[in-house]
Design goal:
homodimer, alpha/beta, eight-stranded mixed β-sheet, 13 strands, Dihydrofolate reductase family protein (chains A, B)
C-alpha cells in the first residue's frame, strides 16, 4: 500500500444524527443536504447552473477542502444514483469508480473518470497517483467501510445533519472491524444546518 | 399532556459515531464511557465508592446537568442491565421505570424508584411531578424513541463518542416518526474523549 506521505485518504459524507447517509428508499436528501442551500454565500461549482448557497463557515470549509483534495474514489451505487454527475462532478476532480464493470456509455472523452474492477485497494492506489500529493476523498457507505476495514483510511469527515432518518444506508455499512476507534474531532465547524466534525482513524 | 412550562423532557445518552448506545451483545461500554474516566477532575457520585474522573469541561457540564434535572425516566432494560444501580443511581434522583411489571425485590424502602406499567406518557407525567419544575431526563433506546414518537420530547442530548461500534442498540431504536427534524446543536462541548451536543426537537 506504500507509505502515507503523499496525501491522506479521507472518507467524507453528510450523515444524519442516527448514522445514515441516505434514508429509507433513498429518501432524506432534502434534510441531509439542507446546508448546501441554507446560507447566503454563493459557491459556484464546476457544473453549469449549479450554485450552492451556504453559510459563511461552510463555504469557507468547502473551498478549503476543494483545494486540498486531488482525487475521489466513489462506489458504483453513488455513481449510478447521480447519473455520473452528467460527466461533471461539482468538485471537478479525477474520479475512480469502484465497479464490477464499466457502465454503458462510459468512459467519455474529456471526462476524468476511471472505472476500477480490482477493488478499493487498487482504486485508492490509482486515486493517489491522480491526486498528485493532495488528499484522496472517499464517499461513502460500503466504499468507506471497505477502506476502513483494509486499513486505508486516515481520516473520517462527517457533516452531521440535525435529523433522525430512522433507517436507510449507514455511513459505514456493515462494518466488520468494529469497534473502530477514532481520535477527535480535531475540527468542529458549526453551521445553522450542519455540524462538520473531523476525526483521525486510530491505528 | 399539559403545558411545557414546568421543565423540559430531555433524552440523554452517550452514543457512538454510528448511532449506537451499546454495541453488539451489550459491548462497547468501555469505548462509549471512556469520558467518565478520562480526565483529572474527580466527580463524586451518590454511589459509595463511585467516583468519576473527567475532563474539566465534562465535569462542569455534568454538575450543571445534575442541578437542572429533577427526575429520570428509564426503561426496564437499562434498569435490569445496571441491577437497578443497587438502589443508588449515581445522580440520586427519583426514577420512574417503565415496565410491564414490578421486578422481584422492588420497590425498596428509602429508594426513590417507582415502576410505571402505563407506558411512557404516564411515566413522563409522573416524573414531571417528581421533578418539581426541573427537567425530566429520559434514557434511552426504546424509551427515548417512544417519547419522541408521542411528542413528549423537548430536547435530545448526545454525548458523541469517537468510535464506530458497527451494530447494537440505536439511540432511537426503530423510530416510526422519521424523518424527525431537530434544531441545533445549540451547545457543543468538546472533551478529548467525547463531544457533547444538545439539540431541540423541532415541532
Amino acid at each position: 500500500m506504500g507509505e502515507r506521505t503523499a496525501g491522506k485518504v479521507i472518507s467524507m459524507a453528510t450523515m444524519s444524527l442516527d448514522g445514515y447517509i441516505s434514508g429509507p428508499g433513498e429518501s432524506g436528501f432534502d434534510r441531509l443536504f439542507a446546508w448546501y442551500d441554507g446560507g447566503e454565500v454563493e459557491v459556484d461549482t464546476a457544473r453549469p447552473g449549479m450554485t450552492w448557497r451556504m453559510s459563511p463557515q461552510s463555504a469557507r470549509l468547502l473551498l478549503s477542502d476543494l483545494a486540498s483534495v486531488g482525487a475521489m474514489v466513489v462506489g458504483r451505487r453513488l455513481f449510478d444514483l447521480t447519473g455520473g454527475w452528467d460527466g461533471r462532478h461539482p468538485f471537478e476532480r479525477p474520479i475512480v469508480v469502484v465497479s464490477h464493470g464499466v457502465p454503458d456509455g462510459w468512459p467519455r472523452p474529456g471526462v476524468p473518470y476511471e472505472f476500477c474492477r480490482d477493488g478499493v485497494g487498487a482504486a485508492v492506489e490509482r486515486a493517489r497517483a491522480l491526486a498528485r500529493g493532495r488528499h484522496v476523498g472517499v464517499t461513502a457507505g460500503s466504499i468507506a467501510r471497505q477502506c476502513l476495514e483494509a486499513g486505508l483510511l486516515d481520516e473520517v469527515w462527517i457533516s452531521l445533519a440535525p435529523v433522525l432518518l430512522g433507517g436507510g444506508t449507514p455511513y459505514f455499512d456493515g462494518l466488520a472491524v468494529a469497534p473502530a476507534d477514532l481520535e477527535g474531532p480535531y475540527l468542529v465547524v458549526q453551521d445553522p444546518h450542519v455540524t462538520h466534525l473531523r476525526y483521525r482513524v486510530r491505528r
